[in-house]
């Protein structure tokens, strides 16, 4: 029997050596299977023909049938164009090309019956269609039955005649070769019946050549279901497996130090959200399983305190704890905070970073190894092999998205029984992403800010109003407040942007010559950076001109204004993070977004959202919708299957939630993957894993 998974594409009628090479190189299509899973990116309803005398300037895409009567070349330079006068007997319309004039002219013939497809628009009082699709009418007849699929193809392919239309022909040829029931079903009969799904073969046939929208929707649903189902099954199976394999350290009691801290040292009441999250953590660490929990909380929601309380639980139960921060500045800040809050309690806290001197390292490492140190605050430095703990029970990872899955796993190996893992992130993640990116973690949300915070007031101004803004800054500085001014520096090597920062710095030095100004960017040595940051934090300097290096975690309560220059260059999440640097004290704080006056639609929307809401979750959802999941920070590094082909994390939240439950039930019902009833799905999961978690494409 012909095996589509391995059968080379070149044997398909209509392909041959040359086209096969193109398909290999351009689209990574090798087997019949690869081609089958190369899906259309849109469909156009070609079931209806319009008449020329029905056309107006503001219609969507239309389809006409008629002939070209004459050609004309017009205009000079950029407006040089080829015009074909086209008629169907009811009137004339101009077909216009601005590119590839010669190619078009040679291909099209006067007097041949064509199907023309395009979007009419009004130009100089005449209706024309620019760059229409023109096909001989008999070749179109094949697919005018229903919706016509459109396939992405590359320039190289188009030049060789392999355009979308040709791809559709190859697909038609493919289905003739494959016959009926050409792929093995990938879901169990029970799942298919229970959730009313279309069989896979049928869905694949329809996704390429749907007769109508309903049919297409049902086929899409089946493929989305399956795609998301296996992403979730993979994640949940992994989590279950981990849970069965590892026994957790049990932190059974709430001991003396936790209680003393709570009663004597805690300067304020915990928010209800903090209390709830601490309870969730307690339940985890008091079970016999290893905790893997993500705490999500907007900037300023008080995650550090939750971390501290968890670490005290570890201490009271005879374990050490480690808190990892993504930068040295942040680690130092955490260290200072912990020391201050724990003053007078018998807890030994140490700090270890890349710049800890060799001779200072010795006692720190000894303390960790012999168990006299209780809490270590660190950076990536802790991952080094010579950092050994006597009994590490808990690892807190702050600002997780800067640590990959690999680092997380490395921390596990620091103890015979892996420590509990608490991941904290201030980057709110849309639910769909959380379910996939962190789908193997349990999630807690701190959805409440400590009382008394004044919401930050955000405004968007155009650069020509910047003098007025400087007046406002002066007023704030005069009142004793401090100010951040941030310039974009997207990659550390972009000299151009650095110049931006330097220019801005000079300019601000001129304008605010009676104040002291710090400068901070990623090209500085860590020592210099820390020194500048310290000067600003202590109030020695009043303005801080910086790149995004200050984005994460920095806490200077007296700073009340965040100015973001070239705000159009930042994504929503980043803007929100930057804004979170102010509003941390009792004073009203402000965020000013400065842009040029020509805004793209996208930038305009971002500015609108930023000025309309302070809610990090709302912003994250909007970010996902504007940019799509591929661009959200952390997604690329995640190593999870994000190569979704039919499902869309911005749109399919409900379905994702639903299939997560379906997958969860199977993992619970058959944790050892041995029940023959689920054979199909476990086998499929093995193939997907072997394929590097890639659901689609070459299956071998
Ligand atoms: P983040 O979640 O951004 O890490 P932090 O833990 O740095 O937030 O907390 C921000 C500020 O809020 C700190 O100054 C902290 O002391 C304060 N804080 C935390 N919890 C409370 C609370 N329950 N009531 C009042 N202030 C709090
Ligand atoms: Mg924090």
Describe what you observe in this structure.
This protein is of the alpha/beta class and 700 residues long. Among the domains are: 47-145, Beta Barrel (OB fold (Dihydrolipoamide Acetyltransferase, E2P)); 256-446, P-loop containing nucleotide triphosphate hydrolases (Rossmann fold); 457-613, P-loop containing nucleotide triphosphate hydrolases (Rossmann fold). Helices cover 40% and strands 17% of the residues. The strands form four sheets. Strands 6-7-4-3-2-5-8 form a seven-stranded mixed beta sheet. Helix 10 runs antiparallel to helix 12. The longest helix is centred in the N-terminal third of the chain and has 33 residues, at 213-245. The protein is globular. Residues 634-641 have low confidence and may be disordered. The site of adenosine-5'-diphosphate (ADP) has 15 residues, from helix 12.
| CATH fold label of the domain at 256-446 | Rossmann fold
Strand order of the largest sheet: 6-7-4-3-2-5-8
Structural class: alpha/beta
Relevant CATH superfamily of the domain at 256-446: P-loop containing nucleotide triphosphate hydrolases
Major sheet size, sense and barrel closure: 7 strands, mixed
What is the number of E strands? 22
Number of separate helices: 24
The average pLDDT score comes to: 86
Oligomer state equals: single chain
User: Regions with pLDDT < 50 over 5+ consecutive residues?
Assistant: 634-641
């Amino acid at each position: 029997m012909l095996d589509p998974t391995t059968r080379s594409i070149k044997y398909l009628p209509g392909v041959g050596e040359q086209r096969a090479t193109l398909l290999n190189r351009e689209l990574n299509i090798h087997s019949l299977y690869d081609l089958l899973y190369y899906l259309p990116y849109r469909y156009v309803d070609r079931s209806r023909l319009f008449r020329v005398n029905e056309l107006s300037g503001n219609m969507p895409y239309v389809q006409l049938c008629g002939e070209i009567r004459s050609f004309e070349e017009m205009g000079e330079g950029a407006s040089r164009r080829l015009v074909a006068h086209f008629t169907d007997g009811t009137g004339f319309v101009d077909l216009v090309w601005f590119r590839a004039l010669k190619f078009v002219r040679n291909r099209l013939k006067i007097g041949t019956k064509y199907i023309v497809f395009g979007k009419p628009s009004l130009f100089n009082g005449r209706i024309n269609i620019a760059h229409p699709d023109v096909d001989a009418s008999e070749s179109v007849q094949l697919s005018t039955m229903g919706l016509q699929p459109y396939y992405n193809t590359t320039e190289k392919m188009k030049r060789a005649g392999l355009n979308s239309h040709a791809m559709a022909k190859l697909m038609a040829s493919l289905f003739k070769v494959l016959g009926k029931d050409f792929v093995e079903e990938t879901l169990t009969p029970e799942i298919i019946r229970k959730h009313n799904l279309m069989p896979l073969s049928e869905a694949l046939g329809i996704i390429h050549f749907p007769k109508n929208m309903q049919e297409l929707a049902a086929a899409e649903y089946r493929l989305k279901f399956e795609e998301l189902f296996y992403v979730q099954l993979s994640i949940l199976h992994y989590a279950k497996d981990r849970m069965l394999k590892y026994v957790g350290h049990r932190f059974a009691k709430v001991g003396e130090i936790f209680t003393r801290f709570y009663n004597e040292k805690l300067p304020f009441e915990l928010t209800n959200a903090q209390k709830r999250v601490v309870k969730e953590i307690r339940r985890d660490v008091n079970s016999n399983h290893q905790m893997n929990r993500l705490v999500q909380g907007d900037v300023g929601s008080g995650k550090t305190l939750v971390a501290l309380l968890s670490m005290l639980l570890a201490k009271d139960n005879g374990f050490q704890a480690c808190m990892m921060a993504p930068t040295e500045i942040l680690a130092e800040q955490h260290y200072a905070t912990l020391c201050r809050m724990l003053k007078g309690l018998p807890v030994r806290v140490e700090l270890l970073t890349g710049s800890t001197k060799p001779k200072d390292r010795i006692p720190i490492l000894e303390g960790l190894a012999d168990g006299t140190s209780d809490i270590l605050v660190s950076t990536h430095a802790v991952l080094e092999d010579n950092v050994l703990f006597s009994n590490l029970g808990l690892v807190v990872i702050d600002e997780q998205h800067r640590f990959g899955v690999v680092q997380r796993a490395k921390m596990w190996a620091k103890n015979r029984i892996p420590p509990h893992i608490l991941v904290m992130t201030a980057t709110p993640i849309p639910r769909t992403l959380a379910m996939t990116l962190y789908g193997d973690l349990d999630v807690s949300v701190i959805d409440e800010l400590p009382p008394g915070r004044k919401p930050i007031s955000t405004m968007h101004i155009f650069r020509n109003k910047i003098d007025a803004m400087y007046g406002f800054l002066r007023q704030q500085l005069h009142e004793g407040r401090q100010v951040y001014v941030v310039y974009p520096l997207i990659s550390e090597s972009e000299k151009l942007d650095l110049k931006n920062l330097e220019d801005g710095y000079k300019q601000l030095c001129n304008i605010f010559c009676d104040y002291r100004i710090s400068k901070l960017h990623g090209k500085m040595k860590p020592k210099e950076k820390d020194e500048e940051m310290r000067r600003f934090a202590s109030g020695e300097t009043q303005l801080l001109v910086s790149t995004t290096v200050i984005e994460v975690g920095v806490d200077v309560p007296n700073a009340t204004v965040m100015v973001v220059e070239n705000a159009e260059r930042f994504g929503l999440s980043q803007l929100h993070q930057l804004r979170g640097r102010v509003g941390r004290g009792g004073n009203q704080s402000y965020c000013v977004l400065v842009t040029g006056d020509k805004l793209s639609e996208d930038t305009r929307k971002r500015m609108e959202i930023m000025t309309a809401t302070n809610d990090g979750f709302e912003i994250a959802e909007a970010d996902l919708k504007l940019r799509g999941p591929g661009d959200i920070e952390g997604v690329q590094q995640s190593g999870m299957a994000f190569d979704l082909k039919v499902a869309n994390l911005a749109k399919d939240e409900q379905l994702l939630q639903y299939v997560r439950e379906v997958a969860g039930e199977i993992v619970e019902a058959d944790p050892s993957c041995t029940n023959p009833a689920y054979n199909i799905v476990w086998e499929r999961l093995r193939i997907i894993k072997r394929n590097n978690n890639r659901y689609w494409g070459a299956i071998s």
